[in-house]
């Protein structure tokens, strides 16, 4: 029986999950309507299409939908923040079709300063899946803006952002390094990626900004195949993320970090970790849906009686 | 009396200088026709327009015009390379209108591997302007692809490329950091730039990839004015270039590097150097035209008699 709906609404994608009372996913819908690529009619139209035919029931949304460029700007919750703090910061928006959607707030770390929107929900989801991580853990959420998150006693204690994915995309799509290259499938991920990771590690304290151009020189010399440049670049940049975090005080030798997110992207970080002689991190997938479900379920239990805690049928 | 023509033909711009016998510039013409932004009719048409009315006389071109994507691919000369090596590597192309243009080869450093096209001519020009630099010097040529060049005994001994300018442009034009910002004029270059440089220095061995996102967080918090983000980013990235080169074995404490290139861009590197407590580098401008003239003049003297060493009138 459908009991709640979770919406993961980021910059470039939109995914809705329909949950039963035990948190099992009954149906998933994906649309290419990130907040930067909405249909012309905007958020209301996207939501109306996305949830069409699904019952009226408690609905939460996480991600950039709550940013200044989103549907409605929801104030950040300050770190340290746990699930209860996120629930207290829920911000309810009523869509044109009458549905109420509770937007989960992002988290702000004043020490950076740094901000996240969406990853806090994945962290909560990972903690639901692996309660043993709540005491003390370090989580890595690779992506357009990778987040490194320290968790203690169920709280997001501190975090920092590394723009690895965005830099990769920019170099690949717009720079002189990307013009002659094609994206390869992950199936072929191999020596070129490893070579990039090794070059990043070998860059020492200088870092890879001085090594990026080597991709072009290697290609011109025929030592790097044109269609391997993107793997080499990916290795350089993911390697730089590990190098940089090892050089800072973020990656603590006594903790084994976990990777959370897209399985194929996490696999790249996992492979790079091995080349840095870091113990292989565990990979946690589906954390976003799990976190959405947990927050909806807990918010519904805590909510005053008039809030809908059961589903009503809709158009 | 016009005696020779030098053409600086890069990725995004095209500049021709008409020289007299003493190397004085009689006229300069600038067109927006870099090799990536040529008029539809291509190189011949661009050249025909550019040099229209100028006499037929020894003509050299430097830069990406000699690259694989250029007018004609000219093989690199290997480092160590001096002016004579460049002259031996000149590659003559005859344009549709009958003009002969000698393209100056780029230089390749197999140790990187790394490559340059155009900067070698600026280095020669700087050595002509400041012969005392020939014995032993370190030159920095800021740009889309900044080059750090070690010179000894008049030879380009080794060099490396830092893609600072390209990364800045990509972040500014295409990333989440640039979307809400406007470019400021250099006149307003001030605290935001300095703050970026200081953040880069403070990043220590971790480097600025972990700090780039702070520009967004600072902006969201109102601590960084939207129209100052580009200056802050510029400071972060130019600061990273200094940080990185100090962390490597490139920047040698016993040498005072010189800056070669665009005066306003060099001024940013000069300002950043001060924040790193590096002795203020001297700034050398107009090195490209000077290098072109020197190479043409020397090549013409050395050339067999049938080469045109005097000007003939043309269309």
The overall pLDDT of chain A, averaged over residues, is 90
Multimerization state: homodimer
Shape of chain A: globular
Rg of chain A, rounded, reads: 21 Å
Number of helices of chain A: 9
Task: Give the strand order, joined by hyphens, for the main sheet of chain A.
Answer: 3-2-1-4-7-6
Q: Which band does the percent of strand residues of chain A land in? A: 15-25%
Strand segment tally of chain A: 14
Structural class of chain A: alpha/beta
The topology string of helices and strands of chain A comes to EEEHEEHEEEEHEEEHHHHEHEH
Cα distance spanning the termini of chain A: 18 Å
State the helicity of chain A in percent bands: 25-40%
The biggest sheet of chain A, with number of strands, parallel, antiparallel or mixed sense and barrel status, is: 6 strands, mixed
Poorly predicted spans of chain A: 304-310
Most extensive chain interface and residues per partner: A-B, 43 and 43 residues
Quick recap of the structure?
The structure is a homodimer of 315-residue chains. Chain A is α/β, with parallel strands linked by helices. Helices cover 33% and strands 22% of the residues of chain A.
